[in-house]
């Protein structure tokens, strides 16, 4: 695979979960009825705005070249918690797909992130 193709694929694989997280964060911040009802039912009502802000901040960090690694780890941590809540609540675990896409994008962005030694 050429370097240009790899770069384009990395952007695509990183953009999909980023877009989903930003949209989710915006919906939490503006107080979308469906999001508020679902999160309140799960016991997260008082933290909805904080979660929305966190999602957007994590995505911003992920797209800044100097902070993409910390953004990557924060996004994975957040999505891991979301996946656990989804599985525990008997909901379809969409977060697992976002985690996989984020990992693939991170790998394609810079394979040296996976070199040990």
Tally of individual helices: 5
The biggest beta sheet is recorded as: none
Write down the overall geometry: elongated
**β-strand number:** 0
Compute the gyration radius: what is it?
A: 15 Å
Which percent bin holds the helix content? over 70%
Distance between the termini: 25 Å
What percent of residues are in strands?
under 5%
Structural class category = mainly alpha
What average pLDDT do the residues reach?
A: 92
Order of helices and strands: HHHHH
Low-pLDDT parts are none
Summarize the structure.
The protein has 117 residues and is an all-alpha fold. Helix content is 77%, strand content 0%. 20% of the residues are buried.
Verbal overview:
Helix 1 (3-30) packs antiparallel against helix 3, helix 1 packs antiparallel against helix 5 and helix 4 (68-88) runs antiparallel to helix 5 (94-109). The model has no long low-confidence stretch (mean pLDDT 92). The protein has five helices and no strands. The protein has 117 residues and is an all-alpha fold. It has helices at 3-30, 33-41, 48-63, 68-88, 94-109.
Which features characterize this protein?
77% helix; 117 residues; mainly alpha; elongated
């Amino acid at each position: 695979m050429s370097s240009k193709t790899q770069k384009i694929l990395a952007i695509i694989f990183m953009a999909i979960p980023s877009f989903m997280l930003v949209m989710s964060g915006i919906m939490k911040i503006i107080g979308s009825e469906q999001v508020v009802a679902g999160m309140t039912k799960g016991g997260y009502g008082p933290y909805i705005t904080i979660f929305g802000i966190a999602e957007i901040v994590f995505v911003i960090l992920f797209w800044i070249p100097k902070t993409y690694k910390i953004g990557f780890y924060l996004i994975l941590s957040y999505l891991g918690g979301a996946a656990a809540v989804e599985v525990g609540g008997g909901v379809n675990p969409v977060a697992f797909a976002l985690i996989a896409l984020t990992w693939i994008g991170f790998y394609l962005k810079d394979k040296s992130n996976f070199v040990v030694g």
